[in-house]
Amino acid sequence: MVSGITTTTASLSGTASSDGINTDSGSCLTEVGFVYAQHANPTTADTKINVTAALGTFTNSLTGLRGNRTYYVRTYAVNSNGFVNYGNEVSFITQKYTLTITAATGHTKVYGTADPVFNYTALGFANGDTNSILSGLLTRDAGENVGKYNIKLGTINAGADYIITFTGAEFEITKANQTITWNQTLEFGCADSNNVTLTATTDSGLPVSYTIANAALGTISGSTLNITGSGNSTITATQIGDQNHNAATAVVKPIEISQSGLVIQQWANVLFFDNKSNNYVAWQWYKNGAAISGATRQYYSEIQPLNGTYHVIAKDKNGNSIKSCPIETTGTVFTKKIKIYPNPVKPNAEFTLECDFSESQLNGSEVVIYDIAGKLVQTISNVKPKNQIIAPSQTALYIVVLKLADGQLKTINLLVK
After folding, report:
1. How far apart are CA 161 and CA 255, in angstroms?
2. With the C-alpha atoms ordered 146, 148, 154, 158, is the resulting torsion angle positive or negative?
3. CA distance 309 to 324
4. Upper half-sphere CA count for residue 48 (Cβ side, 13 Å)
5. What CA dihedral angle connects 20, 23, 27 and 30, to 10 degrees?
6. What are the beta bridge partners of residue 234?
7. Please, is 318 exposed, middle or buried when counting C-beta atoms within 10 Å of its C-beta (0-12, 13-18, 19+)?
8. Per CATH, domain 263-330 is 2.60.40
9. By the 8 A CB rule, do 293 and 391 touch?
10. Which residues, other chains included, contact 156 with Cβ-Cβ below 8 Å and sequence gap of 6+?
11. Angle subtended at Cα 34 by Cα 29 and Cα 40, rounded to the nearest 5 degrees
12. pLDDT single digits (tens) 207-250
């Protein structure tokens, strides 16, 4: 019989007995033992173990076997005449080798990226085998959200000669960074709509939130800015992240909302800033987008008629800035004239304004009277070639401006005293 089978060893036990003929006591025996091979019906020409030369029970152990192999064993006996007798055949299979596979620790990836190859170590190779006999890959528990997942044996296979014991590890998915992109110039006002769509996006696809530093300029609902004032401030775009994303770095953009009606053209070569509130204390004038050196007064003038696009940035007593809407002039000099008489005129007295234009040319025009600080005093519509107008009640120098429907201006001074 065979017992104690392992990967490389087995214990054998057999019995040699006489057939009882002629009172045979086995005295003629010369060898008793075992023969074995990896094929059926082994003989003494295969592997032979000579254990004894007597009748009775005998034992021995096989060593140096190979794992996961089928072996065939028989007892044998040889007498002094060289005759060989074999016992019944017994077969057995050796155990498989044990290969220990241990998953490496520290495997990670960032959310949204591909899994790495999960590394491992393998111990317990036999018969000169190496990692080259292994096939397949380790796998992990399903899931793509941020968190920890168990690494599993997956499809690793070492072939028929091995059984595998596996020690797993944890695989971690970490949060992804995200970036806000915001390619938008926040300059509004003048002819723009009061409702503006803010266009910041994230590479994660998550929605962007906005806050405005100066709520007097407007309110934000979702991605829509509702403009309610003028001036300058900042808008901050944020994305706080979620289960799978870190918070994005905030993007802060300046916003400037221009105000219309701040600048008027008094003569062909003079622009005035309307400071009737007396709240503004500093100015910088611009022509065609460039700051004009030394142009830091409430008004701006050139020797020749103005020709270009002009605006001004004014600062109030608190240091807050406001930008005027641009005013465009073409350098046109009127050949026609206007005149006032009497001039000077008494306060609240009537004076006549004559306009050297036809009624069709004056259609849609208006006459506007300003004080020298640029404050609007009076507006006269339905202008005719000859107009009777009541003078202001305060003695001062006033500016009378004829504004034609096509935007051209004609200016004359009025002295009230």
Report:
1. 74
2. positive
3. 12
4. 14
5. -40
6. 254
7. exposed
8. yes
9. no
10. 101, 120, 134, 135, 136, 137, 138, 164, 166
11. 125
12. 999 999 999 999 999 999 999 988 889 999 999 999 999 999 99
Residue 57's DSSP bridge partners are 15
Please state the length of the chain: 417
* One CATH from 3.40.980.20, 3.30.428.10, 3.40.50.720, 2.60.40.10 for 2-93: 2.60.40.10
Output the six-digit token pair for 354. 């004559």
Q: How far apart are CA 124 and CA 126, in angstroms?
A: 6
Q: Which amino acid is at 271?
A: L
Per-residue pLDDT at 21: 46
What does each C-alpha distance from 199 to 11, 63, 185, 249, 255 come to in angstroms?
Answer: 82, 79, 10, 16, 14
Q: What is the pLDDT of residues 129-154, one digit of tens each?
A: 999 999 999 999 999 999 999 999 99
**Alpha carbons 182 and 174: distance in angstroms, whole number:** 26
More confident residue, 22 or 118: 118
Q: Is the pTM for the entire model greater than 0.70?
A: no
Question: What is the C-alpha to C-alpha distance for residues 323 and 369, in angstroms, rounded to an integer?
Answer: 24
| Separation CA 266–CA 411 (nearest Å) | 6
